[in-house]
């Protein structure tokens, strides 16, 4: 019996070594942890239960029959994060560069299927070179099965992809279909084809960082939702993110204990808006002062900074925040900001996370650059996303709400449940000067000045909208958290029936 038990331990030890000491050392030298070290850090201590540790590939081409490594380049299983069950797979770069074979794919598929049955999140830790080249179509077929499951799980269980090494091919397509992608700075890359292939096909010489580093995907392409300095920070932040997310689309958001009173007032908010309406202020200050204990997990902080998206809690329960940022481009809505916010709003709605929207928007960004880039379609995405929401929507206009952007930003007309304005709000078709120059074209400077004053007095306030009931109440800035908390409690059982249809036709 002892021999049998020892043999099991030996086989386990062999599997735990992955691609061997030398490759593990190389992994560490690059500043990366191994697949197993990452799992240890990410999950609650001792909670990991592994599946398929002894699975090997079945390929006999290109000498592969001589190189079988137990586990086949991916560590899979389940465990807990602060007591809540999650499923995960962690690609092992030390084994064939973490590349995906037929059997490697089957391990991932098993985790995806089990997570769907148990209705728990799936987290993929990626450090892999795509399809295993030696396996050809067997690997491509494996990816197809993974992709299909990504899509079936979308909107049912949260799916998070963490990019922790050079990732190519299927190892970027699968993440692209999940809810969130996070990267590690300087050690992780995402590209459909790597720098060598780029050189061969287009003659372009480009480094991995320039082609698909965190600096590219968090700021330029918007493919990644955030980046962290190293593996350790990244994994600890992923634990924090999991704490905000529901387990599935029917579970409701998690409730955590908080010492922060829901009716806390904040007098400093009464002076947040500068006297000069053209002066910027930081909308994140408002978010941080409204959420429990100032704890805010920002999504896509480095991309389209003119809009802020992220998760916070009120009375211990997760809320999605969307806010125009007057510090960047005066908070204008452009294509990137619209796409970023639309995706976030749709995630929240799919997973029944209430949304609080802070509005200070001078309108949509004019110009050929935006129009040629499809601003009409991209802006429509955000309008569509809000209009489609069935989750509680609470909107607070802090200052400007001009033009179509007023409608888009969770106005009463597209489904806002509670629409509040601060006394500093200005709700109009456009700013006073622009408006008067159009309706009094050719007027003398004195006439223009007089009409501008009149327009400002009449329209640049919250009261015209409040007189019509488009704004439910004009509230004191210091009471914003209390009003939102009461509103969310009142809306806790919101239920909206939508007409039966196969699916909508979002302007993608
Ligand atoms: C088999 C692979 C591999 C792969 C890497 N390796 N990628 N083995 N299939 N796809 C192996 C290498 O042979 C090497 O083995 C080890 O992993 C480490 O790779 P290196 O190249 O030494 O590492 P590095 O210099 O860091 O470069 C990493 C890399 C590069 C950028 C990922 O390996 C690369 O470009 N790989 C190919 C990427 C690719 O084109 N994949 C196919 C995509 S098509 P040894 O034994 O030397 O340690 C695809 C289709 C899916 O995925 C469908 C999409 C819709």
UniProtKB/TrEMBL annotation:
PROSITE patterns: COA_CT_CTER, COA_CT_NTER
Entry GO MF terms: acetyl-CoA carboxylase activity; propionyl-CoA carboxylase activity
Pfam families: Carboxyl_trans (PF01039)
Tree of life domain: Bacteria
GO biological process terms on file: carbon fixation
Domain spans labelled CoA carboxyltransferase N-terminal: 1-257
Gene3D superfamilies noted in UniProt: 2-enoyl-CoA Hydratase, Chain A, domain 1
Family: Belongs to the AccD/PCCB family.
Protein name as annotated: Propionyl-CoA carboxylase beta chain
The organism of origin for this protein: Pseudolabrys taiwanensis
């Amino acid at each position: 019996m002892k021999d049998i038990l020892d043999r099991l331990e030996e086989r386990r030890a062999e599997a735990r070594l992955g691609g061997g000491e030398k490759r593990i050392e190389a992994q560490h030298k690059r500043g990366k942890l191994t697949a197993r070290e990452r799992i240890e850090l990410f999950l609650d201590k001792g909670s990991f239960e592994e599946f398929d540790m002894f699975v090997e590939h079945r390929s006999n081409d290109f000498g592969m029959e001589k190189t079988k490594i137990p586990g086949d380049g991916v560590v899979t299983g389940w465990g807990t994060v602060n007591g809540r069950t999650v499923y995960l797979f962690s690609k092992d770069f030390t084994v064939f560069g973490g590349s995906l074979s037929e059997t490697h794919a089957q391990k991932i598929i098993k985790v995806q299927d089990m997570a769907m049955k148990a209705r728990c999140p799936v987290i993929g830790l990626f450090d892999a070179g795509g399809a295993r080249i030696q396996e050809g179509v067997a690997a491509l077929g494996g990816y197809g099965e993974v992709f299909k499951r990504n899509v079936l799980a979308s909107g049912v269980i949260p799916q998070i992809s963490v990019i922790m090494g050079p990732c190519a091919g299927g190892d970027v397509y699968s993440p692209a279909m999940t809810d969130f992608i996070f990267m590690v700075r300087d050690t992780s890359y995402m590209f459909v084809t790597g720098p060598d292939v780029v050189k061969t096909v287009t003659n372009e010489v480009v480094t991995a960082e320039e082609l698909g580093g965190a600096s590219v995907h968090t700021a330029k392409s918007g493919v990644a939702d955030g980046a962290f300095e190293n593996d350790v920070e990244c994994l600890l932040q992923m634990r924090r993110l999991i704490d905000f997310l529901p387990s599935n689309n029917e579970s409701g958001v998690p409730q955590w204990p908080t010492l922060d009173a829901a009716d806390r007032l904040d007098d400093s908010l009464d002076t947040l808006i500068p006297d000069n309406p053209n002066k910027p202020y930081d909308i994140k200050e408002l978010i941080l002062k409204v959420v429990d204990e100032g704890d805010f997990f920002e999504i896509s902080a480095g991309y389209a900074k003119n809009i802020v998206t992220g998760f916070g809690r009120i009375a211990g329960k997760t809320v999605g925040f969307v806010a125009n940022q007057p510090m960047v481009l005066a908070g204008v809505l452009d294509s990137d900001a619209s796409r970023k916010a639309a995706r976030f709003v749709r995630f929240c709605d799919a997973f029944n996370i209430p949304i609080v929207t802070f509005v200070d928007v001078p309108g949509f960004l004019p110009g050929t650059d935006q129009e040629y880039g499809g601003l009409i379609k991209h802006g429509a995405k955000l309008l569509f996303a809000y209009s489609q929401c069935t989750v509680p929507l609470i909107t607070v206009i802090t200052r400007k709400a001009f033009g179509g952007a007023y409608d888009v930003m969770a106005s009463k007309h597209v489904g806002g449940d509670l629409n509040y304005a601060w006394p500093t709000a200005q709700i109009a078709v456009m700013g006073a000067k622009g408006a008067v120059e159009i309706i009094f074209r050719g007027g003398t400077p004195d006439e223009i000045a007089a009409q501008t004053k009149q327009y400002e007095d009449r329209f640049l306030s919250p009261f015209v909208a409040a007189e019509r009931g488009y704004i439910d109440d004009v509230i004191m800035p210091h009471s914003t958290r209390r009003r939102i908390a009461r509103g969310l409690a009142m809306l806790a059982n919101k239920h909206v029936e939508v007409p039966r249809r196969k699916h909508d036709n979002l302007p993608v």
